[in-house]
């Protein structure tokens, strides 16, 4: 059985990773271990099954203005992007809004809205802003390193608790990559689900047409907005 992925010119085959085998996912740059991967053996091109199946676009709660589109490579001339979720650079797949220069690693885009961590007795919630109660710079309560204001975090919303941690510290024990293959009906459009499995899917709103239609429509919209912005710039600069 062969598969086609928009980011690679050859067909891919599904391969079950054997113990001892080492592959690196081209989508998220993380190693693939004891899972299924999509592979092009000619090019040594590999994708986690969940990265290969990641939605072409998502409506993400951190950026509700525009849908985020899955880009195979960063569109910036530097060839890399800075993730708005974890503040680390990335050179592979990203969920991006090119209008607003929002870019997310695929794993960051799919961080669950809440998780449990054995270092805290309550469930902790994903927060996209650092507007802390006192506004002072915080340190992660798990690794004790600094929590930058540019990073998302997980926090406990109980008033008596002052618990805020890095996203990667909070999810270090969470099974990665259960994006959409966790339920019995994978192909269904789902609303964000929260379960005890520490997994969640941010899904797109039910599209009117096929995904391609919606994508095309979205790009058109983005182009129009971009043109409007450029015109605006020209107009403004012409005044001086
Ligand atoms: Zn991956
Ligand atoms: Zn190939
Ligand atoms: Zn990230
Ligand atoms: Zn945007
Ligand atoms: Zn930490
Ligand atoms: Zn708490």
TrEMBL record:
Annotated DC1 domain residues: 6-51, 61-109, 118-170
Q: Which InterPro entries match?
A: C1-like_sf (IPR046349), DC1 (IPR004146)
**TM annotation in the entry:** none
Asked if the keyword Electron transport belongs to this entry, the reply reads no
Q: Name one Pfam family in it.
A: C1_2
What keywords appear on the UniProt entry? Repeat
| Matches recorded under PANTHER family | DC1 DOMAIN-CONTAINING PROTEIN, PHORBOL-ESTER/DAG-TYPE DOMAIN-CONTAINING PROTEIN
What is the protein's given name? DC1 domain-containing protein
Gene source species: Rehmannia glutinosa
Its ancestry begins with: Eukaryota, Viridiplantae, Streptophyta, Embryophyta, Tracheophyta
